[in-house]
Amino acid sequence: MKVIVFSWISRTGKTTAINEVGEYFVQKGNRVKIYEETARIYLNNHQDPIDRQDMHKWIIQNEKERLNEISQLKEKNEFDIILIDRTFVDTIVYIYRNYLLGYLSDISIINELNTSVSLSNELYDDIVFFDEMIIQDDLFDDYNNPEMKAIFKYSIQKIYQQKIQHYPTTNTSKKYTKTYDKCRRFLGERNVFGYREINR
Asked: How many domains, the chain?
C-alpha cells in the first residue's frame, strides 16, 4: 500500500491534484482512500467566530487519530493507495504561522508532537511538494512572506527528506484556476509517480 501526501501552502492545487490522482488510480483498478485536510473539516463544521486555540487542539487530535488509523490500514492492506491532503508537519507549521500572526498566544502543544511526527515519517511513502509560487490572493498575502516560505520548506525537507517529490503547481487560486481537463492531462496522462500498476 502506498501513502502519498500533498504539501505546500494554500491555493497551490493540492486538493484538485488529490481528486485527479485519486480518480486516475481508481480507473486503473486500485483501491483508493482520500483523507481531506483536517482544518477544512473543522471549518466546515464550525461557525464563526472561530476559536483558533480550540481549532488547533481539535486538528492535532484528529491528525493523531488519522495516523493511527492509517497505520492499521497499512497492516491490513485494505487499500492500494491512500492520498492525504497535508502532512502532519504542515499542521505544526500552520500553528506556528498563526502564532506569528498573533492569532494564538500559546504553542506549547507543539512540544508534545515528536512521537506523531516520527510516526508520520514512518507511514508516508511519498510527499508531493509543489514548486515555489506566488499566491495571487490578498487573503493569503502572508504566505508570500519569504520567511514563512523558508520555515515551511525547511520543516518539510528536514523531516521527510528523500520522500519529497517536486511537481509544478496546478495553482487553483481565484485568479488562476486551471480547468479540469488541463489538470487531468498534467496529473493523469503523465504516469504520475510511476505507479501505473500496484502490486496488492
From this structure: 1
